[in-house]
TrEMBL record:
This is UDP-N-acetylglucosamine 2-epimerase (Non-hydrolyzing). Belongs to the UDP-N-acetylglucosamine 2-epimerase family. Residues 22-346 form the UDP-N-acetylglucosamine 2-epimerase domain. NCBIfam families: wecB. The keyword Endoplasmic reticulum does not apply.
């Protein structure tokens, strides 16, 4: 039996094609790290994921408290169920918690989206992904440079498999469902808009930093309407900084997967600090401005529509995007909608062997 451990929105999007491709008995464990219905349950419905076999319901908390609660609950689950393999996704706290528990119980670990590196150890996600990769028996990478990162860290290359990006499997499978006109009408959105998403601690935890970003977003709104689904993490700080004080800024509650990608698809540009949005815009052909000093997904820059910007450079970057016609871009290798079946074939072969 394969135990899939999921905790947050990006996990669900990556896991759906992997779970669908496996024929072996599977158990779906939802840690409850994202516990808002709009951030979790709606994704299960839209992505065709089976109902979780168990929801640990850990909720929010500090990194230590949340990770510890997940570890305690997963240890009990793994001892009772004895999975052959624990499959983890991405870089959230649920991922590192599951990998640590499995490794100490001598249960093999498979990491989907291994080898991504921002080389910024101030990011909790970077700490998580580095540690998970050291604990994993099977490492599934989404882009070629990830293989080099793992080799440089001493990971046995026989454990590393370049399979493509399962998040793109999900995107391509639902492409016909992303109805921009319908979601525009449902939420009263303007014809021409920039979509913005912010949730990284470096951008939304410090009120002074958040206030500076709100000022930039208001300056962008002077150029074009801004539509922003507000992540629960940054809601209080951003709204206290006056995010919705500008008449051309439209704030939305968190959206389900289909509606969110439909909003992104219809935008003239995206301003984000999200890794997933960098990937989605690369396929959708939407210019993406990433408000971070680094990215663990450089292939979205070399092969996609993404570029890194500073807060001070954001407005001029938006002006350039608005003044430029959409350009051609190259789809990253193996981002072809078949990563899930590749992962399943390798996993089945490894377990049978």
């Amino acid at each position: 039996m394969i135990a899939h451990v999921l905790g947050a929105r990006p996990n669900f999007v990556k896991a759906a094609p992997v779970i669908a491709a496996h024929n072996r008995e599977q158990r779906l464990i939802h840690t409850g790290q994202h516990y808002d219905e709009r951030m979790s349950e709606v994704f299960f419905r839209e992505l065709g994921l089976p109902e979780p076999d168990v929801n640990l319901g850990v909720g929010s908390g500090s990194h230590a408290a949340q990770t510890a609660a997940i570890m305690v609950a997963l240890e009990k689950e793994f001892i009772e169920r004895s999975p052959e393999l624990v499959m983890v996704y991405g870089d959230v706290n649920s991922t590192i918690a599951a990998a640590l528990v499995a490794a100490k119980l001598h249960i093999p670990v498979a990491h989907v989206e291994a080898g991504l590196r921002s080389f910024d150890m101030t990011m909790p996600e970077e700490v998580n992904r580095r540690l998970v990769d050291q604990l994993s028996n099977l490492l599934f990478v989404t882009s070629p440079e990830a293989v080099g990162h793992l080799a440089a860290e001493g990971v046995d290359v026989d454990r590393v498999h370049f399979v493509g990006n399962p998040m793109i499997d999900t995107l391509l499978a639902h492409l016909d469902s992303f109805d921009t006109e319908a979601v525009r009408a449902a939420h009263g959105l303007p014809e021409r808009y920039i979509v913005a998403t912010l949730h990284r601690p470096a951008n939304v935890d410090d009120p002074q930093v958040a206030a500076g970003l709100v000022k930039r977003l208001h300056e962008i709104a002077d150029l074009a309407d801004v539509v922003m689904p507000v992540h629960p993490r940054g809601r209080r700080v951003l709204t206290e900084a006056g995010l919705d004080d500008h008449p051309r800024v439209t704030l939305l509650e968190p959206l389900g997967y289909v509606d969110f990608v439909a909003v992104v698809r219809g935008a003239v540009a995206a301003v984000t600090d999200s890794g997933g949005v960098q990937e989605e815009t690369t396929i959708l052909g939407v210019p993406c401005l990433t408000l971070r000093p680094n990215t663990e997904r450089p292939i979205t820059i070399t092969h996609g529509t993404n570029r890194l910007v500073t807060p001070d450079g954001l407005v001029s970057a938006v002006e350039q995007v608005l003044a430029s016609p959409a350009g051609e871009h190259e789809v990253p290798p193996l981002w072809d909608g078949k990563a899930g079946p590749r992962i399943a074939r390798i996993t089945e072969s490894w377990l049978n062997g």
